[in-house]
Every structure is written in structure tokens, then in C-alpha cells.
Amino acid sequence: ISMVFCLPIALANIYFRDDLSRADYYFVNLKTIGRPVADFLHDILTAFNSGADLSPLTLIISSMTLAISGFILYRKFSTEKNIIWSIPFLFISCNPFALQGLSYKYDSISIAASVLFAIIPFALNIKGKLFSFLFSVLFFFLAIGSYQASINIIISTTCFVLVTQILSERSYREMCSYIIRKIIELVFSFI
């Protein structure tokens, strides 16, 4: 479904604003705007050929990454494993507000990867407080280093987890502890 949702972007094959200068000058250089992980992802994908335009491959990978992100959340938080319960999580990959981000030929992978990086710490149950803390800090750093706006995904997912804790009647103390832990992890990911 995610691939069908992105099909019009692939068929249009237009360069978006930022793509024009990157295609003309044949470089990406996102680390100068605080996105070193995005540069690294692009370098790995293009075999260090910085200005290479790999579209529509970038759109396909981005679409698949967002679909995987939605599937991870579905597996973690869905109370029933059926098609009806998957619909809310489909919004991650079939989000009309994400179309602009997917339209970027050079940035779509880092935007989609930042969503995945932001979601992974919430979806996995890591044993040990220190290891869990370091794991979350690492993935929050990767998310923010890929695309700074992904901090909103981290905040939204934290709120979503809090709602599930309220519904499962967790104690006020547990919820406050969870919020404080996520704030500290987020702060450390900026360091």
C-alpha cells in the first residue's frame, strides 16, 4: 500500500527545491545543517559518490522504511493482530503530510530513516537500565542526526506510550519516571 501511495511521486519525477542545487553542483553536504547521519546514509547508498541521483530507488527505499516503521509499531502496540488494527499504523507510511518529505530525491531516505530510528527504542524491550538508556540515546542521536524534525516523532511516540500506560492503569509514579527517562535520553542524544 505504501508503494502505491508513493507512485505519483515516482511517476512525476520532478526535482524538488533542494534537489535542484544538489543535482546542479553534484554534492549533498547535509552535515553543515546539522545532519551528519544523513550524509553518512547518502554516502553509503551512493558508494561515496555524493551527488549521485538514485531516484526512484531513494523513494522506494524511503517508502519501504516508513512501512517497516508502521509495522514495528503495529507489532509492538496493537492489542489484536488483524487487518483492522493495522489501519492506524498505516498512517505512518501513507501520510499525506509526508508527501513533501518523500518528494525530495536526496533527502527522502534520511527523513524516512529518522522516523525508523526514532521508533526503534520504543519498540524493543532492551534488558538492563544502562544498556536500554545507551540504546535509546544512540537511536535518538541517529534520528535527530538524520533529520532534526524527527524529534516530533520521539515526542509523539512518548505520548502514545503514555496513553497505553494510562489505559493499562500504570501508576502515576511509573508514568512520571518514564517521562523523565525519555527527556534525559533525548537531552543526552544532543550531546
Topology:
Layout: H1 2-12, H2 17-25, H3 36-45, H4 57-77, H5 83-90, H6 99-103, H7 108-123, H8 129-146, H9 151-167, H10 172-190
Helix pairs in contact: 1-4, 3-8, 4-5, 4-7, 7-8, 7-9, 8-10, 9-10
H/I helix tally: 10
Estimate percent helicity: over 70%
| Main beta sheet | none
Mean pLDDT, to the nearest integer, reads 85
Structural class: mainly alpha
Total strand segments? 0
What sequence of helices (H) and strands (E) makes up the elements? HHHHHHHHHH
> Please, what is the oligomeric state?
single chain
Q: How far apart, in Å, are the first and last alpha carbons?
A: 38 Å
What is the general shape?
A: globular
Measured on Cα atoms, how large is the radius of gyration?
18 Å
Strand percentage, roughly?
A: under 5%
Low-confidence stretches: none
Describe the protein in words.
This protein is an all-alpha fold. The longest helix has 21 residues, at 57-77. The mean pLDDT is 85. The protein has helices at residues 2-12, 17-25, 36-45, 57-77, 83-90, 99-103, 108-123, 129-146, 151-167, 172-190. It has 10 helices and no strands.
